Amino acid sequence: MLARLSRFRPIALIAAAALLLQACAATNAGGEPLSPAQQDLRSQTDRFNDTVGTGVVVGAIALGILGAVLGGRDNRAGGAALGAAAGAALGGAAGYYIASRNERYATREQAANARFAAANREANDLERTAIAAEQVAKENRARLAQLQARFKAGQATAAQVRAQAQTAQADLGLMNDAIAHSRKVENAMAQDGVRAEAARVAESRRRMEDAARELQGALAQVPAA
C-alpha cells in the first residue's frame, strides 16, 4: 500500500507546484489581484519568455521528478537532471513566427502558408501586448502618484509605496521582455521579406517602448527607501 502511495507523490508535488505558481502569478507585490491589463500582459509574454511564464518551472519540476522516478535508483540524479532540462525546453516558447521558421514542411507552398499564418498571428498578439502595456503603464503611473500623495499626507505607509514600485518594476520588466521579443520577430520577418507584418510588429514595439519609458519615468520619481 505504501509503495503504491509513493508512486503518486510526484504527481501530487507537480500539482502543488503548479497551483503555487498560479497563485503567485495572480497577485502583485502588495498581494492585491492583478488588473485585467496586467493579466493580459503576463498572458501574452508567457508564451515567448521562459523567465516569466510558469511553463518552464512546472515543466522542469514535472519532468525532473519523472526522470528521477523512471531513472531507477542507480541513475536517479541523472534522470532528474535530464528531466529538468527537457521540462525547461518544453516550457519555453519562442513565439509563433520563430517557431514556424524552425519547422520542416513537405513543400515550399506549405512552408509559405504556415509562415504567413504565423506572422499574422504574431503581429496580432503583439498588437494586443502593446495595448496591455499602455494600459498597465497608465495604471501604475496613477497608482504611484496617488500613493505618493497619500504618503505625504500621512495616509499611506512607505511599505505600500515600495510594494507598488515593485509591482511597477515587474511590469516594466515584462514590457522590456516583450520589446526584445518583438525586435527579434521583426528582424526575422524583415529577413524573410514579410514586410507588412514586420511593419505591424515594429509599430507595436514602438508603442511598448513609449509605455516603458513613461513607466520608467514614473518610477524615477519614487524616492529611495
What features would you describe in this structure?
This protein is mainly alpha-helical. The chain has two domains: 1-33 and 54-91, no CATH class; 39-48 and 94-225. The protein has eight helices and no strands. It has helices at 2-25, 36-46, 55-70, 76-91, 96-102, 108-152, 158-192, 195-220. Helix 5 (96-102) runs antiparallel to helix 6 (108-152), helix 6 packs parallel to helix 8 and helix 7 (158-192) runs antiparallel to helix 8. The longest helix has 45 residues, at 108-152. It starts with a helix and ends in a 5-residue tail after the last helix.
N-end to C-end Cα span: 56 Å
Total beta-strand segments: 0
Which percent range fits the helix content? over 70%
In the predicted model, the low-confidence regions spanning at least 5 consecutive residues are 10-23, 51-92
Number of helices: 8
Structural class: mainly alpha
Rg, rounded, reads 21 Å
Largest sheet: none
Mean pLDDT: 77
Order of helices and strands: HHHHHHHH
Bin the strand percentage.
under 5%
Shape: elongated
Number of domains: 2
